[in-house]
Write a structure and sequence with these properties.
The protein is of the alpha/beta class. Helices cover 22% and strands 22% of the residues. The strands form two sheets. The protein has a seven-stranded mixed beta sheet with strand order 4-5-3-9-10-11-8. The protein has a four-stranded parallel beta sheet with strand order 6-2-1-7, with helices on one face. Helix 1 (11-22) runs parallel beside helix 3.
């Protein structure tokens, strides 16, 4: 069939719609919300293809190979967006800061999480930028140890507008429509429907296998001169064109897991910002 419906206009929906167009389909997106009101607009913007996909014991035997194929396709595609206006995709240095020396076993805490998430990064070593430990004096950070790596990130606003423009320039249409039950999809004129409702599938399809993961973001004003990200004392910072993304991420993969509370917690914001303020107050005056 050449006429296809996509449900949802977040990152999943726009990507699926463009993929279908490239295969020769005429695509209409039906969606309740559009950017910036879709959930994927809240993403921190890091490319983490094997982050919390599934528990180790719940994956099919062939999933790792399929994951690798998808990841390599994803990587190749995103590289074509480098250097475009607005920097929808770019590379950025990231620093992990520790108050104690790495040689003292600072990163060897055992994993006690009740859910052991499967990881597949070892399947794509050529796509992983190796981290390096920086010697004291070779960096400005006032901590005991520093590890640097490079990560691919998204400037979400620019990326979303790029996808929307690409979809519409290829003849795609977006219609505002909300579905309350799966039965309502039968009223669509398209006979092929691609479900890209993301977290919304939990309510629409009664799919309790989709687990919410709470992650509160604190936004600081953009600082173009800050061209790096960092992780320090369970706080993550990503510098984007639309602001500094500051987030308390906890000390394990289980932080926020299963928590669907969307109420803003001012104390969590203050804790994250204070952690950064304390860090930078220790910088030499000439570097602060």
């Amino acid at each position: 069939p050449k006429r296809i419906a996509v449900i949802g206009a977040g990152a999943l929906g726009l990507t699926a719609a463009i993929t279908a167009q490239r295969a020769g389909a005429q695509v209409t997106i039906y969606t309740k919300d559009r950017f910036p009101f879709v959930r994927s607009a809240r993403a921190t913007g890091s490319w983490t293809p094997d982050s919390r996909i599934a528990a180790e014991g719940s994956i099919a035997p062939d999933f790792a190979a399929r994951w690798e194929e998808m990841t390599r396709t994803s990587y190749r595609t995103f590289q074509t967006y480098l250097g475009l206006p607005g920097d929808p995709v770019q590379w950025q240095d990231r620093y992990v800061l520790l108050d104690q020396d790495l040689g003292a076993g600072a990163e060897s805490t055992p994993n006690t999480d009740p859910v052991r998430f499967a990881t597949f990064g070892e399947r794509v070593p050529d796509l992983r930028h190796r981290s390096e430990v920086l010697a004291p004096g070779s960096h400005p950070f006032p901590v005991g140890a520093v590890r640097r790596s490079t990560a691919m990130q998204f400037n979400i606003a620019a990326y979303a507008r790029l996808l929307t423009s690409e979809f519409q320039m290829a003849g795609g249409r977006i219609e505002t429509r909300e579905f309350h039950t799966p039965a309502e999809l039968s009223t669509l004129k398209q006979k092929v429907v691609v479900n890209c409702t993301g977290y919304g599938a939990r309510a629409l399809w009664k799919d309790e296998s989709i687990v919410p993961v709470r992650g509160q973001i604190t936004w600081l004003v953009p600082q173009p001169e800050v061209t790096y990200g960092l992780y320090y004392n369970d706080v993550s910072v990503v510098s984007r064109d639309d602001g500094l993304v500051v987030q308390y991420v906890g000390d394990s993969e289980m932080f926020g897991y299963g928590d669907d509370n969307e109420t803003v917690d001012p104390a969590e914001t203050e804790r994250a910002v204070k952690t950064l303020a304390d860090l930078y107050s220790r910088f030499p005056a000439s570097r602060s």
